[in-house]
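quick one: zinc ion bound model?
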Amino acid sequence: MNSKRRVRFPVITVIVVVAFILITAHTGGASTQTDAKAAPTVTTYSKSQSVCLDPGHGGSDPGALSNDGTINERDINLKVALQVQTSLQNSGYRVFMTRTTNDPTMNNNDRWGYCNSRHATIMVSIHHNDFSDDSVDYATALFYKDSDQALATSILNATSSQLGIPNDGIAQFEDSVLSKSTMPSTVSEGFFITNSSEFSQLSSPNPSRLTIEAKAIVSGIETYFADPKAAQSAVNSNPQVLERDD
Ligand SMILES: [Zn+2]
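yep, here:
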């Protein structure tokens, strides 16, 4: 009995060990596959250019307000920027965002500093205008550096035509977002948040007006990327110079 036990015990042990090895090998293989799926994928971009998008204002700074105070620039700048981001990413561009929520309060250094640190090809800051007269509405785009002008012009031509409002031309404006950024940059002022017609079109939660504007900004960026020199040739040789704080 004792000797039989001594013989049978190793056999059982071998069976158990073999079974354990098989199970472990199988589980291990499955685990490796799971790990491979969970591992972060290396994203490749089909386009070589990148865009730093800067939704103006944010946090404690609402920017311009509609005349009744219910719509603010901080919100609509972000809504437009998020749509531009999605569209550009779907087209294969790498996109950097200075903010993706309405929470952060940012100064200009935060904005140009971030875009410079990402070495973005261009920077587009998204804003909307305001004025005391609710009949005033037009599109404009600001620049500071000579290298900004073609980008500003390309985006302005697209926003003006696709929003169906007057093109006020590009304007030179000394603002550190434009002067300290190391890449071609512009501040797009899509339309007047104080205009009565624009206000009536902004009353729904996701206004189509903002989608039109986002598509226009994307087309302006793509036109610029397709041929920056052609965009340069369309620049107004006598842009207005703005002196203002906003
Ligand atoms: Zn603004």
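The longest strand covers residues 122-129.
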